[in-house]
Structure formats: structure tokens, C-alpha cells
Amino acid sequence: xxxxxxxxxxxxxxxxxxxxxxxxxxxxxxxxxxxxxxxxxxxxxxxxxxxxxxxxxxxxxxxxxxxxxxxxxxxxxxxxxxxxxxxxxxxxxxxxxxxxxxxxxxxxxxxxxxxxxxxxxxxxxxxxxxxxxxxxxxxxxxxxxxxxxxxxxxxxxxxxxxxxxxxxxxxxxxxxxxxxxxxxxxxxxxxxxxxxxxxxxxxxxxxxxxxxxxxxxxxxxxxxxxxxxxxxxxxxxxxxxxxxxxxxxxxxxxxxxxxxxxxxxxxxxxxxxxxxxxxxxxx
Amino acid sequence: xxxxxxxxxxxxxxxxxxxxxxxxxxxxxxxxxxxxxxxxxxxxxxxxxxxxxxxxxxxxxxxxxxxxxxxxxxxxxxxxxxxxxxxxxxxxxxxxxxxxxxxxxxxxxxxxxxxxxxxxxxxxxxxxxxxxxxxxxxxxxxxxxxxxxxxxxxxxxxxxxxxxxxxxxxxxxxxxxxxxxxxxxxxxxxxxxxxxxxxxxxxxxxxxxxxxxxxxxxxxxxxxxxxxxxxxxxxxxxxxxxxxxxxxxxxxxxxxxxxxxxxxxxxxxxxxxxxxxx
Lengths: 283, 278
Hints:
The complex is a heterodimer.
Chain A: E1 18-20, E2 27-29, H1 30-35, H2 51-58, E3 65-66, H3 85-96, E4 102-109, E5 112-119, H4 130-146, E6 150-156, H5 164-183, E7 188-197, H6 198-201, E8 210-213, E9 219-220, H7 224-231, H8 242-247, E10 253-254, H9 257-272, H10 276-282
Parallel strand pairs in A: 5-6, 6-7, 7-8, 7-9, 8-10
Antiparallel strand pairs in A: 1-2, 3-4, 4-5
Helix pairs in contact in A: 4-5
Chain B: H1 12-25, H2 33-40, E1 42-47, E2 59-66, E3 69-76, H3 82-87, H4 95-111, E4 115-121, H5 128-132, H6 135-148, E5 153-162, H7 163-167, E6 174-178, E7 182-184, H8 188-195, H9 202-208, H10 213-218, E8 224-226, H11 237-257, H12 262-270
Parallel strand pairs in B: 3-4, 4-5, 5-6, 5-7, 6-8
Antiparallel strand pairs in B: 1-2, 2-3
């Protein structure tokens, strides 16, 4: 099946089937890089991938059943910056083959059923819109109803400015929905990939029962550029990388993309396994 | 004034009005949280610290009474003097501030105290140390704490309500907004930097974001707009408090009397935008 990897334009070097790593600038045949899950075979840089490719990598072949596939938002504010927001939306929908920046559904991971959500950074920076917030909340609720764990792969610049305060309120919506998962005693595995910033990491993405991150992903509330402009502070080495947060106890494990599915399978095997004694006592 | 993009659908009048609104909310003589707490609440006793190693002066917590009702209070606090502005980081909290708020929510739950929050912050503090100590995690956990609070909860936006930092003490059962206060996804300067790559376009961003208080009522995010004295709250603190106090009392009584269930608060924020059928 021909699915576009959906990486952002900056990382697609040319149209001739070659892939140039944006970190080390080495060029490899596209087929080879697809085989390494868009991790550079030379320097292990993890290129950004789209939501469809993420699902293809993580969910067992043929098991994915999409949820709420037609759920799309509207331009509530009539927003116009340098272009009309509606134009930006139409363009992103056509390019990314998604109604908004999130793809959700049910599937199995290494044989374990789970609700899965994947952000698409190529769709307006994976920003949190009302439609993204709603689809995320529904995916959490579908998982709770179906009594399956929930896995979310986040790659998001934060709240979508063009939807103003409605976008801000999606932080509250997502956290509210997560309460249902907690009430059902079901795990939420949050996977942070490059980049996860602002309102997304300051709401649902930071609330995983287990938090994993891909190597060297940029993760934080305020972006480095804004911090420098606001405070003139020197940024420490490796500031806001996955490894930086892991060292400070904020992320459980940094996992190479090529091992991510296997690690998820191990986690789900433990978390979803029946534990007869405590289940009986706590029931 | 920077030129407005001629293609923009936002009229110059709207831009000027939106910016005037922001300027009143930031007026240097505007009453800050403690000014209003002292005038609206009785017997306020400030508490200190997050019990995890820090005490952020940008976030104030305490106990008070309002009429016959005892309650817990959490507030963003800006500084008035040069020294105090620095000490309180212009009302921008570090993780310790958000954890201090969480401590207050925990305390209120245990002692069955209703909570009133006063919101007046440009946003969470944008600094290296804040990020190192888990700013995003602290805010996320505070959102969660608000949605689990088992007592009545009232929020009042009294000045600036900037981004996730404001949301950390906003997710109440009832939200009141002062006439010249605002709530926004980002400060107008930050939004302009993102949208126009030019923070000088802040007026245009303010208009495009439609951040005037009255819109929040139309959109169902706020339940009540509290009028300010002619010209704005900065013209008369006592008069502002005299308008606010009975409204706080009435709202709190209403929340307490209707019977309380945190699931209703969670449902409010789950369904808030009303764009999708349940």
C-alpha cells in the first residue's frame, strides 16, 4: 500500500526517491530509509513522520479501525492573519489527507488491543484545534468504553492560534476526558516525539501513566527562541530534549523509534495482563 | 501604529478597541489580586509554600471568609513596586507556583472549603529554570487537580488571563470576568510573533483573537461579566471591590446550594465549545 510518509517539506530533499537527513545531510535511497522507519541509517536522527505513517509503524498490519474519521472543525473566529484560516485548513487537509491534525482508531500493537492516537505535525504544526481536541477526547472515551489502554503519539506545536480561546480550552477538554480512563483503571501511554510544546505538553501529553519519548525530541512549555528573547538567559546544553527531561524525572524512557513498537508491546503485555488476586480483591 | 494588512477583515476600529481593552487590563494602577482580596474577603490569612521545596510569590494562596462562608483562595499576584514586580515575576508562576495551587486544591478538598481563584497573569514564566523543573508537567497536573476538586469552585479573571498559565486556576464551576479583563490563548505579543512573525502586530493579533471579555460570555466560557467603575478598575479600587463582593457572594451561594459534584465540572469542560454533537 502506498502511504506517503508525510514528513514535512523541509525534510524531503528531492522528488527522485532519495532521502537527505536534515541532521547529517547524508543521502540514502528512500526505500532504505522507509525500512529504518525514517531514522537516518547514518546518524540515527529521527525524521518527522506523519500520522498515517506512525500508525503504519506501530499498529499491527490490517488491525487499524479508524474512529471519527470525518470529524472536522470550523473557523469559529473568522480568523485572518496574513491569510484566511479557512484557506490554510483546506490546504492542509488536501496535503496531509486528514480532516485535522490528529488520526485516531483502535488496533492491536504486538497483538494487544489499544486505542491509538497520532498527531500529524505536517498539518498546521500538529496544533491543538477544537477538532483535534474533540477527536482526542472521543478516542480516550472510546478506549474507556471498550476497556482498552490508550496510546497517544504527540507531535504538536501547542494550541492553534487561529482558534483563539477555543483552542486553549482543548487543554481542559482533553484532561477532562482522561479522567474517564482513570476511573476505568485503564492505562494511558503518552509518547512524545519531536516537537511537543506549549498547550499539548501542558495538558494531556504530560499526564501519561507511562511517558516515553523518541531520542532528541524537543519538548517543553515555552520554546527556546521565546525564552531567549524574554529573559536573555543562556540555554544549557541539550535544553528541552527528551534526554534532558528524562534526566530530571519527567519522562520514563527514551526509546529509539526502531524499538518503539516492541517496547509498547512489552508495556501493554504487563499493563493489560489480568492479575487475578488484586482484581478479585479490588473489584 | 504599525500598518494593518489591507486584506485583513478586521476593521481598524475593532483593532483599536481590542487594544484599548488590553491596555486597561494591564494598567499600572489596576487593582491586583491582593488589593481585591483585602477589599472583598474577610479575615484573609496567607499561606506559603508548595510543601515540595518552594514558595512562588507569583502565586498567592490562603484562607478567608466571605459573609458566613469560609473558603480557600488562590491568586496570581503581580508586583506594584520595582522590587515587588521582580519578586513576583510580573505574576508569571514557576512550577512551584502551580504546585502551590495544587496544594491549595488538596487542602480545600480535605477541609471541604469552597475555592475562589483570582486570575491575573500574562502566562507561565518563560525561563530556563521553569522548564528544567517541569513547567508543562506542573500546569498539566494543576488542570487535573482542578477537575478533581470535590468542593464548589469559582474563578474570577481580574486582569490578564494568558494561556495555559491562566488555565491552571480557571477551570471552575463558574467563571466571572471583569469588564476590562481578558482571556487569551497567548498574549497578544506572543500571538503576533507566531502569526505575523512580528510582535509589533500585537494590536492586530488582539483584534483577530477577539479577546474582549464580552465574547467569553457569548461563547459560554464565562458565566458573568462584572462591570467596572467608569474608565476601568484602576480609577477606583474600593468601588470595584464593592461591585465584585456581592457578586462573589451570590455566585458562591448558588454553587453551594445547587448541590455539588465534580463530574459536572468535568462535563462542562468536556463539552465547552459546543461545536460537536455529544
